[in-house]
Amino acid sequence: MESLDLRVLGDALDWHRAGHAVTLVTVVETWGSAPRPPGALLAVRDDGAVSGSVSGGCVEDDLIARVKAGERHGMPSMIAYGVSKEEAARFGLPCGGTLRMVQEPLQDAHWIEELLSRTAAHELVARTLTLATGEVALSAASREERMEFDGLKLTTLFGPKWRLLLIGAGQLSQAVAQMAAMLDFEVLVCDPREEYAGMLVMTGATHVPGMPDDVVREMHADAHTAIVALTHDPKLDDMALLEALRSDAFYVGALGSSRNQATRKTRLAEHFELTEAELSRLHGPVGLRIGAKTPAEIAVSIVAQIIECKNAIAPTAQPVAGCSVS
Fold first, then answer.
1. For residues 200 and 177, what is the distance between their CA atoms, to the nearest angstrom?
2. Which letter does DSSP use for residue 17 in this model?
3. Contact between 94 and 32 (Cβ < 8 Å)
4. Last residue of a domain, one of 158, 188, 212
5. Are residues 201 and 283 in the same domain?
6. Domain end among 158, 192, 225
7. CATH number of 190's domain
8. Does residue 55 lie in a domain region?
9. Closest to 29 in 3D by CA, of 122, 118, 99, 115
């Protein structure tokens, strides 16, 4: 998995190795309608090249101008934009928006090498910067943690904070996996069918061996986990859903038409004694109603609905059937 922030760090590492001076800028606080959230990361090279973003562009332009003018900082320091309505307008910040950021010179890039290595192994890593000394410390993090800044230390998280388990390794699963990986999900794929073994090599996804219900049970799905059944085989999907609907997963979805979903719910209720409350958690037909036809379009609808649930946004569209087969 390669998130935007990890790409920024990767670029910063390459620039540092090439002999350039690099400044990292991290958004730590926002007020009003700030364009980028806390934790957003930007790298500025000594010749003005940038990677990442902390605003809609005007703030970046000012930071680039400062660097190209020779402004350098030996230690981490604070910088703010939009502290007045006039300055907010000048830098293109919406309606009084304000950004407060930490800027730090990249002196020693060894921590980036370690962080990229650990996140490549699907580890969630906390990076703590001490502003007074510029010291950086890395530690293992949990998905419950958030960015923290107390004025003295800044702790940011890198790596997969959210997990997505896909049951099935078909063409649709591949499209969903690629999109979810771009959104910082740790993507896991389970499919015990031998005929699909050749499709299990997916960019940004990890194959999990075993039967789907065993995998769901053993992964201890928590409130940062989404599970989607895409095999269209009740023997695989239903058993996985049985475990998923009884777990703490924030999202559980299944491919199939409205008629198939009604039949599935009846089957799960009668044979496995799932309660109405548990069954009501099932998103099926999976995805938002956007008129999706192709696997890529259906993948967009599925990932969009997962993001909607992750961000606790009230549903604005009805689900769309992931398949026209009844």
1. 11
2. H
3. yes
4. 158
5. yes
6. 158
7. 3.40.50.720
8. yes
9. 99
Distances in Å between the Cα of 24 and the Cα atoms of 41, 283, 286 are: 7, 41, 40
Residues belonging to the chain? 326
Same domain membership, residue 203 and residue 109: no
Asked, for residue 267, whether it belongs to a domain, the answer is yes
Please state, in angstroms and rounded to a whole number, the distance separating the CA atoms of residues 228 and 251: 8
> Which sign, positive or negative, has the C-alpha torsion 222, 247, 298, 186?
positive
Element (H, E) at 213: helix 212-218
Q: What is the pLDDT along the chain (326 residues), one digit of tens a residue?
A: 347 789 999 999 999 999 999 999 999 988 765 567 889 999 999 999 999 988 866 788 889 999 988 888 889 999 988 756 666 566 656 555 678 999 999 999 999 999 999 988 878 899 999 999 999 999 999 878 889 999 999 999 998 778 999 999 989 999 999 999 888 898 999 999 888 877 777 767 889 999 999 999 999 898 889 999 999 888 899 999 999 999 999 999 999 889 988 988 988 888 788 888 999 999 999 999 999 999 999 999 999 999 999 987 756 544 433 333 32
Q: Which amino acid is at 288?
A: L
Answer whether residue 322 is part of any domain.
Answer: no
**For the chain, how many structural domains are there in total?**
2
Answer whether residue 319 is part of any domain.
no
Range of the domain at 109: 4-158
Q: Which residues pair with 30 in a beta bridge?
A: 99
What is this structure's pTM?
Answer: 0.70
